[in-house]
């Protein structure tokens, strides 16, 4: 075995042994990212970016279908502007990166590198919204933001990350509420239908909501190790920011009114979910609808006459049907098999001299490892169907896993036992008091993930204090 081969089959740590190390190994060996020079930053490599781009394209299409326009706002925020909304600045202050110098010269006012862009949009809206005719404003921007994190991990928590942030302004509270719901629905759809990850939809508690928001809606997903991941949030601001930034419009009766705003975001963190929900000890498993390469052709004994020609011919036949590629490099078939598995391509198409003789190929599914011999004449019908089967199977598997990892607790003893014995979501009733939420976090490190839209009553009393319960909450340890 050559040096290159040895390097590649270098073992990925088993996830049962050390999940965090498994994650780091996969991210590196599947060539998704590399660490940047400044601690906590990352270089997203071509394969990682191609996956993100597919997510991005799908979302962008949905944003535009629902009437949103893309814009690009500055990277910098003057300190005085960031200070304008009290809760907002308090929420973000500990993570802000500050620019203090321009060249050699010290600036008279510090400039923040945007941790999020609410204040920039609010400032803009206060100058550009005058009449009810100017509403709604439905803006989105694709960009990067900086939050100075103490502990960082690729995709999950990085000092700089890529995302989209939507910022909208509406005439009424009801309009803003509908927008908040609509965008959460778009996120849930993308994550469930494209990423094959089932989500819980719900509202954040006041303690966990966005700094400055009236309320925050969230989608939460369950990772393989039993930890939850917040996968997208949509915030209703009410008129709080509008009052701080004086964003008013004249209604149809000529009366001055505050606008009602929303913001919503989905970031490269979702890549972490993709890895941790579907991945296994052989590497990534990418759902077909989002996979940059849905099928990889691996020629066997490609030095033999006619094999490569036939493989290229096959690629050309399939390329308008699925996203297909061919590995015609001089690496061994074994190396190529490993790589298709590491990168999580949904299907591998093997084709050697014997297959060519029989007018067939071998299809190998990444999700189950199952092999299927299929006549060339039937391949164009079979392949898209197989990809859909894989997509469905990944979703069902993830859903079954989430169910397995969901417990019910009626008191703190049951809560702690569930966390210990079967880490995952815990469904428990809550009285609505932040003190109970804080106590649970302190005693167990689990946090409230959401108050699900689909409510159930698993008991009458709060899991923590025993007083009358108001609502069901999903709790979990989270990334
Ligand atoms: Zn309580």
From TrEMBL:
Molecular function GO labels: ATP binding; catalytic activity, acting on a protein; proline-tRNA ligase activity; transferase activity
Entry EC number(s): 6.1.1.15
SMART domains: ProRS-C_1
Domain Aminoacyl-transfer RNA synthetases class-II family profile: 39-287
Gene3D superfamilies: Anticodon-binding domain, Bira Bifunctional Protein, Domain 2, C-terminal domain of ProRS
Gene Ontology cellular-component terms listed: aminoacyl-tRNA synthetase multienzyme complex; cytoplasm
Keywords: Aminoacyl-tRNA synthetase, ATP-binding, Cytoplasm, Ligase, Nucleotide-binding, Protein biosynthesis
Catalysed reactions listed for this entry: tRNA(Pro) + L-proline + ATP = L-prolyl-tRNA(Pro) + AMP + diphosphate
UniProt comment concerning the protein's domains: Consists of three domains: the N-terminal catalytic domain, the anticodon-binding domain and the C-terminal extension.
UniProt cross-references to HAMAP family, sorted A to Z: Pro_tRNA_synth_type3
Subunit structure: Homodimer.
Name of the protein described by the UniProt record: Proline--tRNA ligase
Species this chain originates from: Virgibacillus halodenitrificans
